[in-house]
Amino acid sequence: VIVAYIDGGSRGNPGPAGFGVRIERGNGTLVEEIAESIGIATNNVAEYRGLLAALEWARRQGERELLVRSDSQLLVEQMRGVYKVRNPGLQPLHARARLLANEIGRVSFEHVPRERNARADRLANLAMDGKSVVASTSREADEPGPINALEPSPDSSNRDAGALDDPLTPTERSVRVFIYRHLIETMRAPDVATIAAAVGTDQPSAAAALHDLAAAHALVMAPSTTNIWMAHPFSAVPTMFPVVHEGRTYWANCAWDAAGVMSLVGGGTTETRCADCAEPLTIAIRDGNVIGDAVVHFAVAPRRFWDNIAFT
Amino acid sequence: LLLFRSEEHVERWCSERHVSKGAVVPIQQVWTLARSWYRERLEYSWRPHQPEAMARMFSDAGLTGDFWRI
């Protein structure tokens, strides 16, 4: 059986955060190590992000069975269904983890003391320092891992480390991740002052980051303002496509984005109307499948999506 | 991207508004596409989709033909 040791943490809560994942075979042979910086986040979000990375790895590899070991009792008991997930910031991450675990097949969770999780802890600490690593090896677990010869990976958060084609700076990435977290937790887009405070910068820098993110098509600003209009698939303003999930209402930009919101928050229902005859139409996600009989009209071909994003 | 009860409703809407008809896609396929399109969206490491990735996602969702060519 494949074993994933996971750990996540932040320097400050929230603060610069990261996670580490160490994947081993049952006999202790090292398969892969992953360390990734995730910008500003809480401790528990970082733990979940480590879990998601491990589950995504297992699914990619076609593993049907996985044992996850973590020193976070909260995460382990929540994934076992013993603890409820009350923190709204963790709910979408938990829902994604459940979905991935179902797709993999048999995923079990074991709580281990910190000292048995030291290698994942070390990776998480590297990630918190801003180093990202993906390294696989067939060496024995007791040999020095590739982490000792660590080079920043191409998607490292450190832009000066050679990732010259990276379209986004670390600040822009943190701003982007914060906007989505804020949208999911509060159902509203944050304003510039909130963004600046969250990522530890001043308002002009936050406004500049928003402008650059819009130029990179990572979000859409309301014309001539510093207000976020769209962070796809979310809309910051009400639309014809509300997505209701666990008592929360999110707004999607269009029919496709309604499906996108459901995929990100882990389910939901959209009650809207046929654009032609105005008869009620409902789309819902049940057990990972879409329920509802409707069609979406793509009036604009994909290569023209951004010519007029409001029309699209 | 608007939602309709069926392709007939799309056609009526297009002719009444003098909008040329694009692609009409069942919501099940849109769900498949949306899941892959937005999979990395919350990740710190997210990047705008590259054309090859977009083309693959369309074809994986069964969306082929000139309309979907990037």
Characterise this structure:
Chain A is built from eight helices and 15 strands. In chain A, helix 1 packs parallel to helix 3, helix 5 crosses helix 7 and helix 6 crosses helix 7. Chain A is globular. Chain A has a six-stranded mixed β-sheet with strand order 5-4-1-2-3-6. A three-stranded antiparallel β-sheet of chain A has the order 7-8-9. Chain A is an alpha+beta fold and 312 residues long. Chain B is mainly α and 70 residues long. Chain B contains three helices and two strands; from the N terminus they run βαβαα. In chain B, helix 2 runs antiparallel to helix 3. Chain B is elongated and about 45 Å long. Strand 15 of chain A pairs antiparallel with strand 2 of chain B.
Order of helices and strands of chain B: EHEHH
**What is the radius of gyration of chain B?**
14 Å
Q: Count interface residues per chain for the largest interface.
A: A-B, 59 and 44 residues
Low-confidence stretches of chain B: none
Major sheet of chain B, described briefly? none
Individual helix count of chain B: 3
Content-based structural category of chain B: mainly alpha
Helix count of chain A equals 8
Structural class of chain A: alpha+beta
Distance between the termini of chain B: 18 Å
Task: Set out the fold topology.
The complex is a heterodimer of chains A (312) and B (70).
Chain A: E1 2-10, E2 15-24, E3 30-41, H1 43-61, E4 65-70, H2 73-79, H3 91-104, E5 106-111, H4 118-128, E6 133-136, H5 170-186, H6 192-199, H7 203-215, E7 220-221, E8 228-231, E9 234-235, E10 241-245, E11 248-252, H8 255-265, E12 268-273, E13 280-286, E14 289-291, E15 295-298
Parallel strand pairs in A: 1-4, 4-5
Antiparallel strand pairs in A: 1-2, 2-3, 3-6, 7-8, 8-9, 10-11, 12-13, 13-14
Helix pairs in contact in A: 1-3, 5-6, 5-7, 6-7
Chain B: E1 2-4, H1 7-17, E2 23-26, H2 27-37, H3 51-60
